[in-house]
Amino acid sequence: MTAWRLAALAIALLMLLPLGVAVGALATPTGDIWAHLTEHVLPAVVRNTAGLSVCVAIASAVLGGTAAWLTAMVDFPGRRFFAWALLLPLALPGYVIAFALAGVFDYSGAVANLWQSLFGVRMPRLGAGTASAVCLSLTLYPYVYLLVRQAFVTQGQRCLEVAQSLGMDRLTGFRRVALPMARPWFATGVALVVMETLADFGTVKVFNFDTFTTAIYGAWFGLFSLPAALQLSALLLLFVALAVAGEQFWRSKARYVSRDAAARPRYLVVSRTQALLACTFCVLLFAVAFVVPVLQLVLWAIEMASSEITLRYWSFVRASVSLGVMAAVFVTLLGLLLGYSERRAPGIATTWSVRIATLGYAMPGTVLAVGFFVAVSATGDWLGVTLTGTILVMLLAYAARFLAVGYGPLGTGLQRITPNIDDAARGLGVSGLSLLRRVHWPMLRTGVATAALLVFVDVMKELPITLLTRPFGWDTLAVRIFQLTTEGEWQRAAIPALAIVAAGLLPVLWLHRHSDRH
Amino acid sequence: MLTIHNLYAGYGDTNVLQGLDLELGKGRIGCLLGDSGCGKTTLLRCIAGFECPTDGRILLDGQTLVGDGTHRAPERRPVGLVFQDFALLPHLNAANNVAFGLSHLPADARRQRVADMLELVGLSHYADRLPHQLSGGQQQRVALARSLVREPKLLLLDEPFSSLDAGMRQQLGGDIRAWLKALDMTALFVTHDQQEAFVLADDIGIMQAGRLLQWDTAYRVYHEPACREAADFLGGGAWLPGRFDANSSVNTELGQLRVSGEVTFSHNAAVSVLLRPDDVVHDDDAPLRAEVVSKQFRGAMFLYELRLISGTVLQSLVPSHHDHEVGEHIGIRLDTEHCVVFADHRR
Amino acid sequence: MTHCFRLLTLSIIGFSLAACGDDATTSTPAEPETAVAETPQPLVVYSSRAEQLIAPLFDAFTADTGIDVQYVTDSAQPLIERLKAEGTSTPASVLLTVDAGVLWFAEQQGVLQPANSPVLDARVPDAYRDPQGHWYGLSLRARTIVYDNRELAADELTGYVDLADEKWRGRLCLRTSKKVYNQSLVAMMIAEYGEARAEEVVRGWVANLAEPVFANDTKLVEAIEDGRCDVGIVNSYYFGRLQRERELPVSIFWQPETLGGVHVNVSGAGITANAPSRDAAQRLLEWFAGDRGQQLFASLNLEFPVVASVPVDPIVAAWGEMSPSDRTLVDAGRLQADAVKLMDRAGYR
C-alpha cells in the first residue's frame, strides 16, 4: 500500500520540478515590472483569458456533445462516416488550423473574395478574440467528443429508455437524463479543453489576442524578466486549479454505470428533416474544422512542394513518430501507476499527488520546459552527470506536460472497475497479474488506447519542450513548422503541417474502431 | 385490459417472438416465465415501446399501442417500466427520483404525490438519500415508486428481483404484491425464477422460443399444464410411463390412476403421467417400496428422489422429521385424485 | 486481448531500451550523418535564426574550413536559459540570434565572452556590435515604411515620427508590439528623442491605426495591397519575399539620413562564455564577416550585409540607396524593457 502512495508522490514530485521553479520565482524581486503589469497588462489579460476559456469551453461542449450524441445515438445518413471523421481535427495543431483558417478568411483568402463578389462589400474582419475562440473550439472540441461519445455509446440508450418510461420525449430525455449522466465525461473533456486553452500560445499569437500566455512571453521576451514570467505562470496555475476543482466537483456528484450495457447498438429513427439537420450539422463541423483548413494546406503544399520537400522529411517524420510513441507509452504507464495508486492507496496524499501531477498541462509549454530544464540540470550538477539533452529528460518533460491527458481517460476507466468486480474475480481464484490481464485490461483497454492516442497526437504537435530539450538531430515536424513560421513562411509550413495531420490520422482511426466496440 | 394479438418481433432473420397471444385483466398481476433468450424481455420492450414488433397488435384498455400501422411513442404510452438494474438517477435523491417523471405537475401537487408514494413503499425516512446510500431493496422500492407515482395503466417489471438476495425477494415480493393490489394496478413482469412467479403473480405465462406455451392462473399452470414442456418448466416432478385405459384412467406400475380433464387416447396407447413431488407421499406402512437415490434438505421438507423397481425415478416431498439415508427403501403411496397425462413420444 | 497485452509489454521493454541506449550515447551527441572522423568535436551552435536561413551557411563554412557544425534552433530566450543552466558543461560555442536586444541581454546574463578578434572589429561597424566584442551583428534587417503607391507618392512621406501626425488618421497599419522588431524600433526612438517624445509618437501611431494591429508583416503588406491602409512599417525582407511572388502596388520608403536614417536591427552572434571550441567559434564568426559569408548571410533572406562594401541582392538593390541609422544597437537591448512598457502604456498592443 505504501509503495503505491510513494509511487504517486514520486510522480507528483517530478511534476513539482517545473512548478517549484515557477513558485520559487515568486521570491525573486522583479522591480517595477509588477507595478507595470498590474496597471497596464493584467486587467485586460485576465479578462481576455477568462472570457476565452469560458467561450471555448462552452463551444467545445456544445459542438463535441452534439456531435457525440448524433453519431452515437441517431440514425442519419453519413453517421458511420462522421463517427470517426469528426475526430480528425484532433490531428490538427491549433497553430496550424489558425494560420490555415486565417489564410482562408483573411484579405486575400478565398472566402473574402467570395464575400466581396457576392455582397459587393468587404468582409468584416473577425475580432482577435472571436477568431481565437473559434479556432480553439474547432481544434479542441474532439476532446469532448471523444470522451462523451464513449458515455453515450455505453449508456445513452438506457438513459433514453428510463426517460421515456417516465413519460418524457426523447429531447427531454436527452436533456434531463442523458446529459446529467454523461457529466463525468463532459467534465473531463471540458477540463482538458480549458487547460489547453489556458496554455495555448500558438493560436492566440496568430490572431494577436492578448492572454495570460502572451503576457508571460511578453514579460520574458520583451521585458527580459524570466522571474516575472514564472511569477505570471504561477498565477496562471490559479486558473488551472479552478478548472481542476471544477472538474472534480462535477465528476464527484455523478457516477453511473449501467449494469447491463445495451446488447446491441440501436439508433434512433428520426424524421427526414431531423436526419437532414443532423447531417448538415456534421457536414458543417467537419468542413470548417477539417476539410477547409486541410484543403488550404494542400493548396499551399502543392505550391511549395518542389522547394520544400526533401529527403530530410523522412528524418522529421521518424523523429516525430518515435517521440510520439515513446511518450505515449511512457505517459500512459505513469498515468496507470497514478490511477492504481489512487485506487489502491486512497487518501489525501494520493489525491493531492494526482492533482499536482496533472497540473502541468495548463502551464505554457515554454515556461514548463525551461522550469524543467533548469531543475533537471541542477539535479544533474548535484549528481555529477549530464542529464540534459537526453531522450529520457525529454520524456519526463512530456510526462510533466501531458499526464493530465493520459490520466483523464484512465481515471474514468478505472472508476468502471468497481471493487466488487475485483472481489468477484478474486473469488474465482483470479488475482495478481492474472487479475490485471483477464479483468482489468479488457475493461481498461479503451481507456488506455484513448490515453495513449491523445498523448501521441499531442506530442506530435508539441513544440516548446521539443525545441528546448531535444538532442541533436531530433528535429520533428513541429520543429520544422516552427522554423518556417518564425520567419513568416506560413505557406511552406503547410507541408510539415500536413505530415503531422497524416501521421495523426492513423491512430485516430484506430482509436475509433476500438472505442466503438463498447 | 392488456391484449396482445399474434405478435411477431425480431431482428434481421431471427424471430424472437413468433405469433404470441396474451390477455391480462384489469388489476391482475401477470408473469412471463421463461429461460433467458425465450423472448420475454423482448415482449416487455414491445409493450413499453422500445421495440417495434414486425407483426401483430398490442392493445391497452381498448386503445392500440402498436399494430395496424400505428406505433405510439414509448413516452406516450400509459405504461410504467421498472428496469432490472432499477436505473435510478445517481445524482438525484430518492424523492427527486420519484418526482422525476412528474414535471408536468405544479410543485405542491408533486411534493404531495411523492410523499404519499414514498410512504406507501415505506421510504418516507429515506427521501433525502442518494441511490448509492440505499440498499438494493430500497433502491427497488424507489424505482417502483418512481413508476407508480405516474399512475400508469400498466406497470411492467423486468426481472424485478434479480439483483436482490433471496430473503429480500420473499419479503419484497409480498410487499410489492400488496401495494399493487392496493392501487388496483395491472402489472406484468418477467422472470426466470418460478418462486418469484408464484409469490407475485395471479396469471403466469410460460414462454419458450418466442411462443407462449400456456397462459393461465398460477394454480392451473401448476396443476393443469397445457403441455409436457410447460409441466417440465414449472413445478418439476417426474414422468411415470403407463398405458391408457378406455375409462379415462391409466394403468401404471403404481396401479390405476384417474385422468383429469377431457383427454382421450386410443386404448392401450403409451402415455406419461405427471407426478408432482407433492403427489408422492411417504408412508411407512405402504406396501409399495422405493429406494432413496438422493435427498435435498428444504427446511420443513425433504425432497427425495426415489427409484422404483422398474428404474423410474420419482420425486417426493416428505416432512423433514422423516430422515432416511440414501440407499434405504421406504414406503410410498400416491395422493392424487386426478393425474395429468400426455402422449409418450419417447417410446 | 493477450495479443494487445503482449504488444504493450514489448513496447515497455522497447522504451526502456531506448531510454538506456540514449543515456549511454549522451557523451557523444553526434549524428551519424554529420560525424566526421577527423573532427572529433564538432562546433555546436545555438541558433534562434531559422534553420533554412542558417543551414546553407554552415554547409558552406564546413566546405571552406573542414569544421563540422551542429546546431539546435529555438527562440533566443530559452536558448539563453539553456546556456545558463548548462553552465560549464554546455556543448555550445556560439549563440546566434536575429535581434540585437537579446544579444545584449545574453551579454548581461554573462553567457557570452569577448571574441577578441581584430578581424571582426575591423569588418563590423561599431554601431552593430558590442563594444567589448561579446557579440557582432552579421546582417542588417531594415524596419522601414511601405506605402500604397496608388494613393501616395514618395515625397508625401518623411519618416517614422511623421506617421504620428494627424494627417495619417485611419491610414496607418502596424504589426503587434510583441514582435521584437517593433520593440527595438521604439527603443531606438527612446534613445534618440527621449522617453516622453517617443511615447507621444507611439500614441500618435496608435491613434492613426486603420485596423487592429497585425500578427505579422506579411498580413500587413497584404492589407495595404487590399487598400485597407495607405502606409505601414515592416521589415524590408518580408516585403521583398512577397515581391518575389507577385507584382505589388506597394513601394518601400527609406527615411533619409538627415532624419537619422533607416532603423536597422541585426542578426548576430557571439561566442559563449564556456565555449568548448572557442577557436572554431571565432573562425565561424570571422568567416561570417568575410565577403563570401556576408553575401550568403544577407542574400539568403534579402537582408543587408553589415560590411558596406559587400553587394546586396538585386531585388534589394532595386529599392534604392538605404542609409542605416548609425546609433549603437546596444541601446536596443538596454532600452527594450522600457520600450515594451511604453507601448503597453500607450495602448499599442
How would you characterize this protein structure?
- The complex is a heterotrimer of chains A (518), B (347) and C (349).
- Chain A has helices at 2-24, 33-73, 79-85, 94-105, 110-119, 128-165, 170-181, 183-199, 202-207, 212-222, 226-252, 272-308, 312-344, 348-357, 365-383, 391-416, 419-427, 432-461, 464-469, 477-486, 490-515; strands spanning 74-75, 268-269.
- A two-stranded parallel ribbon of chain A has the order 1-2.
- Helix content of chain A is 79%, strand content 1%.
- Chain B is an alpha+beta fold.
- Chain B is 22% helix and 36% strand.
- The longest helix of chain C is centred in the first third of the chain and has 24 residues, at 2-25.
- Chain C has 14 helices and ten strands.
- By secondary structure, chain C is α/β, with parallel strands linked by helices.
- In chain C, strands 1, 2, 3, 4, 5, 6, 7, 8, 9 and 10 form a ten-stranded mixed beta sheet that branches.
- In chain C, 44% of the residues lie in helices and 15% in strands.
- Chains A and C meet through helix 2, helix 9, helix 10, helix 13 and helix 15 of A and helix 1, helix 2, strand 2, helix 3 and helix 8 of C.
Radius of gyration of chain B: 24 Å
> Which runs of chain A of at least 5 residues are low in confidence (pLDDT < 50)?
255-263
Oligomeric state of the chains?
heterotrimer
Q: Helix-strand pattern of chain A, N to C?
A: HHEHHHHHHHHHEHHHHHHHHHH
Structural class of chain B: alpha+beta
What does the secondary structure layout of this molecule look like, with pairings?
The complex is a heterotrimer of chains A (518), B (347) and C (349).
Chain A: H1 2-24, H2 33-73, E1 74-75, H3 79-85, H4 94-105, H5 110-119, H6 128-165, H7 170-181, H8 183-199, H9 202-207, H10 212-222, H11 226-252, E2 268-269, H12 272-308, H13 312-344, H14 348-357, H15 365-383, H16 391-416, H17 419-427, H18 432-461, H19 464-469, H20 477-486, H21 490-515
Parallel strand pairs in A: 1-2
Chain B: E1 2-11, E2 14-24, E3 29-33, H1 40-48, E4 55-60, E5 63-67, E6 70-71, E7 79-82, H2 94-99, H3 107-120, H4 136-148, E8 154-158, H5 166-182, E9 186-191, H6 194-200, E10 203-208, E11 211-217, H7 218-223, H8 228-233, E12 238-245, E13 249-252, E14 255-258, E15 270-275, E16 280-282, E17 289-298, E18 301-307, E19 313-319, E20 329-334, E21 340-343
Parallel strand pairs in B: 3-9, 3-10, 7-8, 8-9
Antiparallel strand pairs in B: 1-2, 1-4, 4-5, 5-6, 10-11, 12-13, 12-15, 13-14, 15-21, 16-20, 17-18, 17-20, 18-19
Helix pairs in contact in B: 3-4
Chain C: H1 2-25, E1 43-47, H2 51-65, E2 69-73, H3 76-86, E3 94-97, H4 100-108, E4 112-113, H5 118-123, E5 136-148, E6 172-173, H6 180-193, H7 195-208, H8 217-225, E7 231-235, H9 236-245, E8 250-253, E9 263-272, H10 278-289, H11 291-299, E10 304-305, H12 314-317, H13 330-334, H14 336-345
Parallel strand pairs in C: 1-2, 1-3, 6-7
Antiparallel strand pairs in C: 3-9, 4-9, 5-7, 5-8, 5-9, 5-10
Helix pairs in contact in C: 6-7, 6-14, 7-14
